[in-house]
Amino acid sequence: MGTGLTYLRKTTSPEATKQLASTLAPYLRAGDVIVLSGDLGAGKTQFVQGVAAGLGVRAPVTSPTFNILLSYPEGTLPLHHFDLYRLDDIDELEDIGFYETLDADGASFVEWGEKFPDALPYGYLDVVVTVDAEGNRVVRVHAFGDRARRLLTVWANDSKSRLMKCAGGTA
Q: ∠ CA(113), CA(31), CA(149), 5° rounding?
């Protein structure tokens, strides 16, 4: 992840992962981009479900693996949820309205965004969800860019997030 502002938290259940994510919701604003990485089944969609709940989205939030993009406009801030797993070429991002959506009215969550690093905006939060040997989730968050740094700072200062700062970007 490199140097910079990095925080982490270990969660012991899907509910705890969703709770952590819900604490991010009040700080999001239009144009924020969160890139979610991790193995299949690690908890990326659960993270988005938690944010959606924090934004007041009542619709079921599911993985957009086959849809590529699912949007939830009914919360306090529109939420756009991408899953780029099935895409093979950066040119396909134009076909799905990727760039227009990132610049639209809501916050965008991009699963498998690391497949296309050149397509990512200057500023975003990088959220990596891994599973440890005991089956717990380790959620590591790194900020790229000024807005992402401010977002991560206020989120980490929220006592409900229980994020812990990592020295030098590592735990």
A: 75
